[in-house]
Design a protein that fits this description.
Blueprint (H helix, E strand, L loop, with lengths): L26 H8 L12 H26 L5 H27 L10 H7 L8 H22 L6 H24 L14
Helix pairs in contact: 1-3, 2-3, 2-5, 3-6, 5-6
Length: 195
């Protein structure tokens, strides 16, 4: 099965920010993420943030491709496929928000690799079961959550730290759902992510 925009019920470009969180964001970050570039500082002031956002964008491209590989494998049962489509939609929303932020800051968004490159780097040839796909997605979601949490202190604009934390929360939600689908126990120790 091929995933496409029509199956994702994605009503358009999503943003990483919702109206409820705008009160604590800097004017520059709100301007960048909301599409008002006049509110943003110059590109040089955000070059470090652009680099971090591009790394995050690379993770989102990889996640989108991984869910595509899983969907096209024919190994996912219908209810699991529906969740995979939903999670891929979340990652497409993350991608769109990151591309918007990078562009508004004056940066150039990193482009995705080819599906063949992703299939090779993800080890798609070794996938033989639904559990293999779920383990791959689980590993990628955990890695993304840890990456988003790890870069929070590095942002020059603190508002991007908040966005990174929100993206990490989505990744943890995905990891938790995948862990449940695999029938695995949740961690018993606190501070599971970000270490």
């Amino acid at each position: 099965m091929t995933l496409n925009v029509s199956t994702l019920a994605n009503p358009g470009r999503r943003t990483a920010l919702r109206a409820g969180g705008l009160g604590v964001l800097s004017v520059a970050a709100i301007g960048v993420l909301a599409g008002a570039p006049g509110m943003a500082r110059a590109k040089d002031a955000h070059s470090g943030d652009i680099d971090i956002l591009n790394i995050a964008l690379g993770l989102e491209h990889e996640a989108i491709a991984a869910y595509q590989v899983g969907a096209q494998s024919g190994l996912l049962q219908k209810p699991v496929l529906a969740v995979a489509v939903q999670f891929q939609g979340h990652h497409k929303g993350h991608r769109d928000a990151l591309i918007g932020a990078i562009t508004k800051l004056g940066g150039t968004p990193v482009q995705p690799k080819s599906m063949n490159d992703y299939a090779m780097s993800l080890g798609a040839a070794s996938i033989k079961s639904q559990a293999d796909i779920l383990h791959l997605a689980q590993r990628l979601e955990r890695g993304a959550a840890n990456a988003y949490l790890g870069v929070i202190p590095s942002f020059q604009d603190r508002a991007f730290a908040q966005v990174s934390a929100r993206l990490a929360a989505d990744e943890v939600m995905h990891w938790t759902a995948l862990t449940g689908a695999l029938g695995e126990a949740l961690p018993t120790m606190p501070l599971t992510f970000g270490g």
